[in-house]
Prior knowledge:
Elements: H1 2-24, E1 39-49, E2 55-67, E3 70-81, E4 87-102, E5 105-118, E6 121-137, E7 140-151, E8 157-167, E9 172-181, E10 184-194
Amino acid sequence: xxxxxxxxxxxxxxxxxxxxxxxxxxxxxxxxxxxxxxxxxxxxxxxxxxxxxxxxxxxxxxxxxxxxxxxxxxxxxxxxxxxxxxxxxxxxxxxxxxxxxxxxxxxxxxxxxxxxxxxxxxxxxxxxxxxxxxxxxxxxxxxxxxxxxxxxxxxxxxxxxxxxxxxxxxxxxxxxxxxxxxxxxxxxxxxxxxx
Length: 195
């Protein structure tokens, strides 16, 4: 009787395994053609704030794919606050998940930690965003994200972020990015090296 029960259970186990593989298939997909999560870029950043002092300066950031569907990222920026001798330093660190939804498009979600410093004042926070990256052609990929950010001593707020990478060749390109929230608008432009 036990052998009969084992034989009945085996097809059920195979069916369960097949269903699990089918369910996992979308998560095993690699990035869409023409989209890379490996890059280093640097350039000019400008932040136009509604209630506080505007600032501008330099920013560098990087992203590295540690798995076909997972990447880690980080950035560092230093900006001069208008009308003052003060500098604002901002660091971010986080991880993202990406999977292809078509041959030329990925859906992406990202979680990150942020720290801002002005002299001895420090402010910690975090953010989450989700969106789509699309490789329009071999020379252009673009993205659009929506997200939520929360910082200490501030109310949380939603934001939108759009950008594009214009590719000169396989490795070099130019990235432009605009992030809009209730409290500020951030602009970035600079060269990008991808691999």
